[in-house]
């Protein structure tokens, strides 16, 4: 077990999170992937295994402190040391401000911000004694600016960005690379294909982001030498207005 290294991907969906897990698995990392429904992870696990990699699926609610503590402990004691942790939960919803209930606002914050804190805290605990590791929080357009109808999502993503900044300033000097890449554009997902067909049509012109490109970026961030670490970077298609 001591020769293995694990990557933990919280929110390993069918697009970005799955692509990140596959990218690191190709580099020899044990992919530990999570969603609330473990059954939805089976295709991803099978893809990684069929390509010669190792993967483990976990059904857990990242908003629950006891579940995050148990998850990190299980991976560390039974699978491999967590070398990389990626927080990739979305929670992108749109409501007008007068239609945004307290329950919606709180749930979005729990999913997109509080859960990131729990992952960051627990993985930092196990990385610090080793003096190395990478923690990446996936940012979005809402991390930088709040659009109309996205008060809940923008508030959560702004909070996650602040968390990443504070953690970077605290942990970089201790050998832990904390990064916050901002994905500012539509990603090639089933959600975009179904709900935004005009935007999805730009795929043929490389006008939406390929999840594999994001995965390559995350591998690059993890591979950076300590004398040239990146904290925040922005990714968008060449056609994306900004």
Quick structural overview:
The protein has 242 residues and is of the alpha/beta class. 43% of the residues lie in helices and 17% in strands.
Distance between the termini: 46 Å
**What integer value in Å does the Rg equal?**
17 Å
Uncertain regions: pLDDT < 50 for 5+ in a row? none
As a percent range, the share of strand residues is: 15-25%
Q: Class by helix and strand content?
A: alpha/beta
Mean pLDDT: 94
* Number of separate strands: 8
User: What does the largest sheet look like?
Assistant: 8 strands, parallel
What's the helical proportion of residues? 40-55%
The arrangement of helices and strands along the chain is EHEHEHEHEEHEHHHE
Which of globular, elongated, flat, extended, rod-shaped describes the shape?
A: globular
If helices are DSSP runs of H or I spanning 4 or more residues, what is the number of helices? Answer: 8
Keyphrases for this structure?
242 residues, alpha/beta, 8-stranded parallel β-sheet, globular
Could you walk me through the main structural features you see in this protein, from its secondary elements to its overall organization?
By secondary structure, this protein is α/β, with parallel strands linked by helices. The chain has eight helices and eight strands. The protein has helices spanning 16-26, 42-50, 65-78, 102-127, 151-171, 190-195, 197-200, 211-223; strands at 6-10, 30-35, 55-59, 82-87, 133-137, 139-140, 176-183, 232-235. Strands 1, 2, 3, 4, 5, 6, 7 and 8 form an eight-stranded parallel β-sheet that branches. The chain starts with 5 loop residues before the first strand and ends in a 7-residue tail after the last strand. 43% of the residues are buried.
